[in-house]
Amino acid sequence: MSQKLSTMKYIKNNKRRVAVPALSLCLCFVLTYITGFLLSTTEETFSSIYIDNAEKIQFVSLSDETLGVDTDLRFIMGESMDEVIKNRNEKVSELGRKLEEHEGVKSVYLAADLYAYVSPAIGTGSFIIPLVEKDEVEDVLNDFGTVVEEGRLPENPGEIVIDRSTIRNDGSELGGYYDYSDYKERYKIVGIIDSDLYFGCGIPAEGDSGIKSMIVFSDIKDMTAELKKENITVGSEDNVYDYVYGDKMIRTEIADAINNSTAYVYGGVLVILTILLTVVYTMYLRERHNEWCLYCSIGFSRTSIYLSIMRELLFTFVAALISGVVIAGALIYALDLVMIEPDGLKCSFFDIGSVIKILSAFVFLVGILQIPIRYALVKIRTVDAMEDDLY
């Protein structure tokens, strides 16, 4: 018989039966994507801190040994700590002037370090707020490509400006203090800068203006290699925060932690969904056994019946995916509006990793369901054969 079985007629006449598995699949797909989305806010936030920032600005903090400052000898010679720090900073300043002559380097500043922290769903990331002289604050902000959009520039020791996302995440406010650990009531937020990145700048508080590091505005990705041109070998006691450091941090620590978390969630959902779907679908096939026996009796081949089953199954999965896209999109928008953005975090609405996992689950489940489908086809018998069993 050349005529094929109509899939849509069955679907139209059995909307509830088709809708239940489609809705179940839809909710599982949405759960997988939303979980990946929420966890990916950690990676997106950390990528902004460690990679996006590093494409504009790099921080270099070198030890006395690397700089060639013999602190112990200077104390033996009776030199005061202030003089030691002054001599050390002079070496840092001299190195900064040399770096400014390198290709790709825009400007170099000496700065004290104020660590700011951002806490997404997993872990805590940190970035450095450079603390410079009063007349350098505006230059630092200009080099970073930002300006104060609310409040004013720092004018007194212990005043800082900071981006709005960090303030939201920390719970601070304009006019208040950056309230984190040792910095309590030492650094007052006098301005909010216009920046999509995590950044800030300020003037050192009293007692924090001693040892200086370098902040380098450049497009250099590997500052360690750049320092070698000045015969500076970065050691284990030195800190260089550049693109290479940020990329390594994201790949080796953050991405692995997130991937492990999503893998457990994805694996658990897939196992539960496979068991439930197989059981439910096997019962569904049994209910339609007599219907397929009738089709076989009037001349439809098992191949025609199989293709009809597959069309129904694919319709269910496609309907689940389309519904999932709509529901997940609405949930993501709502989550970003009420939770992600107000908490000062970054996110990516399209997560290719979750999409691949969902499509892989689609293929896997369709493959697994071939087992009960094939078994149901083998059990199909014509009406004549069924009547022979009665005698």
Short description:
By secondary structure, the chain is of the alpha+beta class.
Structural overview:
- By secondary structure, the chain is an alpha+beta fold.
- The protein folds into 3 domains: 7-46 and 251-388, no CATH class; 63-102 and 219-237, no CATH class; 105-217, no CATH class.
- Helix content is 56%, strand content 14%.
- The protein contains 14 helices and 9 strands.
- It has helices at residues 7-13, 15-52, 64-67, 71-76, 81-99, 137-144, 164-170, 223-228, 243-287, 289-297, 302-340, 352-368, 370-378, 383-388, and strands at 57-61, 105-118, 125-131, 148-151, 159-163, 188-193, 200-202, 213-218, 239-241.
- The strands form 2 sheets. It has a 5-stranded antiparallel sheet with strand order 3-2-8-1-9.
- Helix 2 packs antiparallel against helix 9 (243-287) and helix 2 (15-52) crosses helix 11.
- The longest helix has 45 residues, at 243-287.
- It starts with 6 loop residues before the first helix and ends with a helix.
- The model is unreliable at 385-391 (pLDDT under 50).
